[in-house]
Design brief:
Keywords: Signal, Transport
CATH superfamily of the largest domain: Periplasmic binding protein-like II
CATH topology of the largest domain: D-Maltodextrin-Binding Protein, domain 2
Number of strands: 11
InterPro entries: Bact_solute-bd_prot1, SBP
Family: Belongs to the bacterial solute-binding protein 1 family.
Pfam families: SBP_bac_1
Organism: Nocardioides euryhalodurans
CATH architecture of the largest domain: 3-Layer(aba) Sandwich
Radius of gyration: 22 Å
């Protein structure tokens, strides 16, 4: 699939990064003063400043860590700064422990921006407008990405990776041989096509939610997509912020729209009974059998990493994608659900840290990571030729060209709900609970106003 050529901004030379970070035109979104408990100047940690070494803690490891470190290699050589990245799968717990013990890293890379909030409240992280050119950054990013890390009027982290979740995959060769459409104007058209497949004796959808202790998150992603498509971004925001209750009719409408797929006989491979027993990483595999056992899977761009190796190695020939279509009668534009990783500074008194943040938050960062696959830049001005295939470019374009984007709701909600009751109640829902009971239970589980929980 061809993509349009984008305007490319001139990259800032690596050796000029430090002076730009300190003397560039900085935008302060909160002129009345800094937010956070006792934050008056620069936050500082126990690590030595100006020693040419910067420590980063994040959650991604394995090949992702290798690709990240490869993306840093030229910067380290030219700047003379040694970047030491540590991967920790229990990042959420580890970062809390280290900050509380006075051993915070220079930079933390958060897989959910909502996790930064408590460090804002304690004055442990530095607002980005004090070390980055806020306006220049905002100008290149997909609109809205900075707002996901905004607390009390200021932004406390910079996005350095994007995930796009409004993607539907299909087996390209079999699909084209059957003469199926390459896109759908509305959700209703997609459902008509789904019914046509069933009438022809085919199974439309591949779906699996099993994910060990995280089982249920795939269902929350579906609800988030339907909330955004059916009700639009304003209602979506009200839902995330609990300005409307979880059992509001708007949430029920979105849940019932999803039920047209998940709970309708013959629509999902193996029926709804198989959804909890099918690993999310294996859900798409029957799509690539001959003939396909199911024809479509809605999943984030990271889903590609779970495709068979022979499929990944020939992605453009084997896989087709289209954007999850808008809902007729819902939001008029084309919304896209996203996720991403955000870098936050725990040591704002170190010029080396500012240089690293300038580099990893720039629209020129990540070409090496992009080349190996599985990484998308949150910058609309990123050179899409750095992506290794047309499928990845098409997925990135979904966000770059979206009318509106919204971040994964469960990652922004209180953790006790977003990665707690939301997951478990979705499991009960797909297992037979009705929509009203499910949403009532979720509303009851929401922490009371002002209530602090260990998980939040």
């Amino acid at each position: 699939m061809a993509t349009r050529k984008r305007r490319r901004l001139t990259a800032v030379g690596l050796m000029a990064v430090g002076s730009l970070a300190l003397t560039g035109c900085l935008q302060n979104p909160n002129e009345s003063g800094a937010a956070g408990a006792g934050l008056e100047g620069y936050v500082d940690n126990a690590q030595t400043d100006g020693d040419g070494s910067v420590t980063i803690l994040g959650a991604f490891g394995g090949t992702e860590q290798e690709a990240f470190e490869e993306s840093l290699a030229a910067f380290e050589e030219e700047s003379g700064i040694d970047v030491n990245y540590t991967a920790d799968q229990d990042f959420t717990t580890t970062i809390k422990t280290r900050v509380q013990s006075g051993d915070s890293p220079d930079i933390g890379i958060f897989p959910q921006p909502g996790g930064i909030a408590e460090f804002v409240d304690s004055g442990s992280v530095q607002p980005i407008d004090t070390y980055l050119d806020y306006d220049a950054l905002d100008d290149t990013l997909v609109p809205g990405f900075l707002d996901f890390a905004r607390f009390n009027g200021r932004v406390y982290a910079a996005p350095m990776r994007m995930a796009v979740k409004s993607v539907v995959y299909y087996p390209k060769q079999a699909w084209e041989e059957a003469g199926y459409p390459e896109e759908f104007a509305t959700f209703q058209e997609l459902m008509e096509f789904s019914d046509q497949l069933k009438a022809d004796g085919e199974t439309p959808w591949c779906m699996g939610w099993e994910s060990d202790q995280a089982t249920g998150w795939v269902g929350t992603d579906w609800i988030e997509q339907m909330m955004l498509s059916v009700n639009g971004p304003d209602v979506y925001d009200d839902w995330v912020n609990h300005d409307i209750p979880f059992n509001d009719p708007a949430v029920a409408d979105a849940t019932d729209a999803f039920a047209e797929i998940a709970k309708t006989d013959g629509t999902v491979l193996g029926g709804k009974e198989s959804i909890l027993n099918t690993a999310f990483a294996e859900a798409a595999l029957p799509m690539f059998e001959d003939p396909p056992q199911c024809w479509m899977e809605r999943q984030g761009n990271f889903g590609i990493g779970f495709f068979p190796e022979e499929i990944r190695n020939n992605l453009d020939e084997e896989v087709g994608v289209f954007q999850f279509p808008r809902y007729d009668g819902g939001y008029d534009g084309q919304p896209v659900l996203v996720g991403g990783d955000y870098a936050a500074v725990f040591n704002g008194n170190d010029d080396d840290v500012a240089q690293v943040m300038e580099f990893i938050s720039a629209d020129s960062f990540g070409a090496e990571w992009a080349a190996v696959g599985g990484w998308l830049s949150p910058h609309a001005t990123f050179d899409s030729e750095a992506y290794p295939d047309d499928v990845t470019r098409a997925i990135a374009d979904m966000a770059y060209e979206a009318d509106v984007i919204r971040y994964d709701a469960s990652d922004l909600m209180p953790k006790s709900v977003g990665s707690g009751t939301f997951w478990t109640e979705m499991v009960k829902w797909i297992d037979g609970a009705d929509t009203a009971t499910t949403l009532d239970n979720l509303e009851s589980s929401w922490p009371a106003s002002g209530e602090e929980t260990e998980e939040s």
